[in-house]
Design brief:
Length: about 180
């Protein structure tokens, strides 16, 4: 019984600091707050249940992200997202008129919205590697562990994701 408590305490010590990061990643993947909350909750339940299979000395954060990713991919939302590749959107960014005016604040918000829309339109395998690298600031090796893919694939997907994102944003700017 004491060993079970120690395991649960160890799990809690390792897992709780990752909550916000996991939620942010889940929200980016699912594009829905409620779905993200459900994914994180299911991730923690699965991780706690399978904590005995975690190899001490390995990367716990990558292990948790892998569980979250797999949970997302097997969810209804994940299955839809991985099958869908939408590349068009109606949001268009504007060029700023001047600093700190209501117009420029609106334009900055529009640009952020355009970037978010462009990110959401990327295929899941591009979006997740881009988010893990740029938003979560994971090193390539940790991304490779998280996604269970070779590091060369991480670099290739990251390059392709950046190129696709650039293309989407350039197309929006041309339409402006």
């Amino acid at each position: 019984m004491a060993e079970a408590r120690l395991t649960a305490a160890t799990f809690e010590e390792l897992a709780i600091p990752l909550f916000d990061q996991l939620y942010n990643f889940a929200h980016w993947l699912a594009q829905d707050r409620t779905e993200a909350e459900d994914l994180v909750q299911e991730t923690y339940a699965k991780a706690l249940k399978g904590f005995s299979s975690f190899q001490p000395g390995t990367n716990f954060r990558a292990w948790m992200y892998r569980i979250l990713r797999n949970t997302f991919l097997t969810s209804r939302t994940g299955l839809k997202a991985s099958a869908m590749v939408a590349l068009d959107s109606d949001d268009t960014p504007e060029l700023p008129a001047g600093p700190d005016t209501p117009e420029t604040l609106f334009i900055v918000h529009s640009q952020q919205q355009a970037l978010q829309t462009a990110l959401e339109s990327l295929p899941v395998h591009f979006r997740e590697v881009l988010l893990l690298c740029e938003v979560e600031e994971m090193p390539y090796q940790e991304i490779a562990e998280t996604l269970s893919i070779p590091m060369g694939t991480v670099m290739s997907r990251l390059s392709r994701a950046r190129k696709a994102l650039r293309l989407i944003l350039e197309q929006k700017l041309v339409r402006t």
